[in-house]
Amino acid sequence: MSPAPVALTCGEPAGIGPELAVAVWEILRQDVPFFWIGDPAHLPAGSEHRLIDRPDAVHDTTEGGLPVLAHAFDGARVPGMPQPAQAQGVIDVIARAVALAQSGAASAICTLPIHKQALQEGAGFAWPGHTEYLAHLAGADEVVMMLASPQLRVVPATIHIPLSKVPTALTADLLAQRIRITHDSLRRQFGVVSPRIAVAGLNPHAGEGGRMGREEIDLIIPVLDALRAEGLDLRGPMSADTMFHAAARAQYDAAICMYHDQALIPIKTLDFDQGVNVTLGLPFIRTSPDHGTAFDIAGTGLTNPSSTVAALRMAWNMAKGRSA
């Protein structure tokens, strides 16, 4: 039985989200069943779309343009200029998508970019970002950010903190949690029966036996040994400068890195346009394009839909794998 369609949230109306929704429909209409949740008045002028009253109406036809589950907003869209009155609508669309995913009416959620400052100023948005709000709605205690493409999957153990704070933030409990959630998600959401996970060291050359730092000896190796005893297939700690070439990548299904740039530089170098943000640890599938609202080109027609296409394809493939 085919999964339910994917819900695509509108994101920040003043950004490139409305153009992306129309563009990806033209590309994916025959391949990925999805619907957009947003205000149809925010779509680019003349965009072909059809209103639906329930998600499964997506399957009725591929004619008539982008399927839209209408969600009314206050006021018109102004490309490049977020409107405070529309902030609550952006938040409510995310919540609506989560409710559809939790009920089974949507098989996955693909979220278009939001602008946190606009939401905070316009509606008192109380969460650090999109992911934290999704975790709150889902009642998930811990979530993990993965960047994924056909060439590489990476998970940063620490994310948006100064490099100077990484050694303190990197604890045994945090690293073990990141690895366990990644292992479980590879099996449950990506269909990898026996996940192989590579783990980078923190220091150059993975510490070189303690001569370049002791974090590998004192923290990383004990965590890996404990998880190996539980049956996890873990490689490392590995020197980060030798684990991302093609032959090395063929030996694992995902890489755990110690900090933001150690994870994101390789995937953005290898596959900048196809990188997808996947949130692990949620009770539903969530993907997102790996870019922001792009206010500077909103409304110009210059948007590149590649990452959103990749995000929707990945969400749909994960949904099919989960239902198999």
Strand content range: 15-25%
Biggest pleated-sheet summary: 12 strands, mixed
Question: If strands are numbered along the chain, what order do they take across the biggest sheet?
Answer: 3-4-2-1-5-12-11-6-7-10-8-9
Q: Which shape, going by the Cα principal axes?
A: globular
Radius of gyration: 20 Å
**Distance separating the two termini:** 8 Å
Number of strands: 12
Estimated helix fraction: 25-40%
Number of domains: 2
Q: What string gives the helices and strands in order? A: EHEEEHEHHEEHHEHEHEHEEH
Would you identify the CATH architecture of the largest domain?
Answer: 3-Layer(aba) Sandwich
Global mean pLDDT: 93
* Tally of alpha and pi helices: 10
CATH topology of the largest domain: Isopropylmalate Dehydrogenase
* Quaternary structure annotation: single chain
Describe the protein.
- This protein has ten helices and twelve strands.
- It has about 325 residues and is an alpha/beta fold.
- The chain has two domains: about 1-140 and about 285-324, Isopropylmalate Dehydrogenase (3-Layer(aba) Sandwich); about 145-280, Isopropylmalate Dehydrogenase (3-Layer(aba) Sandwich).
- Strands 3-4-2-1-5-12-11-6-7-10-8-9 form a twelve-stranded mixed sheet, with helices on both faces.
- The model has no long low-confidence stretch (mean pLDDT about 95).
